[in-house]
Specification:
273 residues; 7-stranded mixed sheet; two-stranded antiparallel ribbon
């Protein structure tokens, strides 16, 4: 059986660009965790980041992203706080701060680096540095999730079509902003419908296409898990969360052909002061 040290030597040895990227993401996470703690906003490690904490006590060695989740009711509050308290070398990226970013979730971007991902989409963004993702979850009906996810997929198709035709950032941004405002009106209708539907499960907020959903009992009260030598918040029933997401054998390593890296190239221009 391969050891953690052997995995690190193979995928993310000290000094490698992937390891430097992971450490920059870790630094961003620490800042966000401190701000959330200061303002009593619950957050928790999620997806592959939580899997890495449980299976590797840190990043999955080949992983090049970092995910956390918060409750949707805290999402706008957190954005408002981050606008005031983030250091100048970090920027909030949403479809309101960057009209060429079509995502329905927030990224916190480092301004002293550039990521070239394995697609052409990120080349259009206003902010392109190393980032962490912040997803919002809420009690949503399966019906509303399917409708909102489908709408957002069509929105992404339109965005890609505009990009391939070579339209200017301004023109494309204006078109996408108009479409997003229309779609957000539909999200409000879905929210009203959901108010009358009982026993909803927790899905990602309207517009996020990920199909994962969870029982409300999985998350609270939050506990702590070790991640890269620091303790961060995690769902109460971490085991069930990971089983729901990855299956019963989540502690087993995937085949080598499935150990994929999203980024094609990372350039770090400057260290934080």
């Amino acid at each position: 059986m391969i050891t953690q040290q052997e995995l690190q030597e193979k995928y993310n040895p000290d000094g490698s660009i992937l390891r430097l990227q992971q450490l920059r993401m870790l630094s961003i996470l620490k800042i966000i965790a401190d701000i959330c703690g200061k303002h009593q906003i619950p957050y928790w490690l999620s997806s592959g980041t939580l899997l890495g904490a449980v299976r590797h006590k840190g990043f999955i060695p080949w992983d090049d992203d970092l995910d956390i989740e918060i409750l949707d009711k805290d999402y706008k509050k957190l954005i408002s706080i981050l606008k005031k308290e983030l250091p100048p070398f970090l920027k909030i990226q949403t479809n309101r701060t960057d009209w060429n970013y079509p995502g329905a979730y927030m990224k916190i971007r480092d301004v002293y680096s550039i990521i070239y991902e394995n697609n052409y989409i990120d080349n259009q963004y206003k902010y392109r540095g190393i980032y962490i993702d912040i997803f919002a979850i809420a009690p949503i009906s399966k019906f509303s999730h399917i409708i909102s996810a489908s709408l957002h997929r069509y929105l992404l198709y339109g965005w890609r079509a505009l990009t391939k035709k070579g339209h200017s950032h301004f023109y494309k941004g204006m078109i996408m902003r108009s479409l997003m405002l229309f779609v957000e009106c539909i999200y409000q209708v879905l929210w009203l419908i959901d108010c009358f539907i009982p026993n909803k499960r927790f899905y990602y907020k309207y517009g996020v296409t990920n199909p994962e959903n969870y029982s409300s009992t999985i998350f609270f009260p939050l506990k702590e898990v070790e991640f890269e030598g620091t303790y961060f918040k995690a769902p109460r029933d971490t085991h069930q969360y990971l089983v729901d997401l990855y299956g019963d054998d989540y502690m087993s390593l995937p085949p080598e052909e499935n150990r994929r890296i999203h980024t094609q190239k990372v350039v770090i221009h400057k260290e934080w002061q």
